[in-house]
Amino acid sequence: MSYKRPEPKIFPCSQSKVLATKIAKSFGIDLGNIITSKFSDGEFQPSFEESIRGSRIFIIGSTHPSANNLMEMLLMLDAAKRASARHITAVIPYFGWARQDRKDKPRVPIAAKLIAKTLETAGATRIITMDLHADQIQGFFERPVDHLFASTIFLPYLRNLNLDNLAIASPDMGGSKRAYAYSKALQSDVVVCYKQRAKANIISHMELIGDVDGKNVVIVDDMVDTAGTLAKAADLMIERGALSVRAICTHPILSGNAYEKLENSKLEELIVTDTIPLKQKSSKIKVLTCSDLFADVMHNVHYNKSISSKFIM
Predict the structure, then answer these.
(1) Where in the sequence of the chain do the CATH 3.40.50.2020 domains occur?
(2) For the segment 9-32, what is each residue's pLDDT rounded down to a tens digit?
(3) pTM over the 0.90 mark
(4) CATH code that applies to domain 9-149+292-311
(5) Which end of the chain is more exposed for a tag (fewer CB within 10 A), N or C?
(6) Could you write out the DSSP letters of every residue in 6-60?
(7) In 61-74, which positions are buried (b, 16+ CB within 10 angstroms) versus exposed (e)?
(8) Residue 144, SS3 per DSSP
(9) pLDDT value at residue 3
(10) What is the arithmetic mean of pLDDT over 223-240?
């Protein structure tokens, strides 16, 4: 007797339902049926309302704070494991808590490692994510990790802008590798911002390494949180003679008064993906969807095809 391979199924966490809907449409299937029951004290319980026994399932959800987003992913993974799903892939467009990837002072946690182990314990047999804050987070997992690059989305957009005298900028020393990769692809100059922080999210001093005079500058980063770095860098670059300053940031966290900072800055445009839904609209923010990229990778994973082209910066 021959057995037919079960079709893949896609289920959304509530925080990423809009993106999951786009991914499912691009993949060519409907979202799976799942409901979440809520208790009066805030506790919640997800429930798969269809059989997933023996299936490959993809659970889509970014894990940005609040902690409920991470908790929902963990509960869905556990439910899928207990429902006898054969392959359980956690699709995490934005891997939250990733900034705590090492001990940068005594007596602090390595949250990224803790979450990696927790996801595996909950039932994830594979992880698909994009633009981790630190590449070494892949090593925190014992399961396969597909680490995608948003450059496959951003580079075509930048090329279509046809900017003359282009310069790629890194907002800090840690992001210089990413900036050099973009500059190589676009055959442009590189500028690096050297910044000192008084504390988290507070910049005390910033200086430029490189020349931006007469250049159209594009700042490249994996995330934008308070937008303080971008606003300060854009203003400094315009002062130093830059013709225009744009930024591309994969994950639009945009907390606090980030939207106000963007509007009041010299930044001409902020280009982001939809890994995290925007809290409000802004005339300066351009959103490019990552749904086709994730759908393509998920399709190739299910049918055991190569996805190496998605790892090329």
Answers:
(1) 9-149+292-311, 151-288
(2) 999 999 999 999 999 999 999 999
(3) yes
(4) 3.40.50.2020
(5) N
(6) PPPEEEE-GGGHHHHHHHHHHHTSPBP-EEEEE-TTS-EEEEE-S--TT-EEEEE
(7) bbbbeeeebbebbb
(8) coil
(9) 58
(10) 93
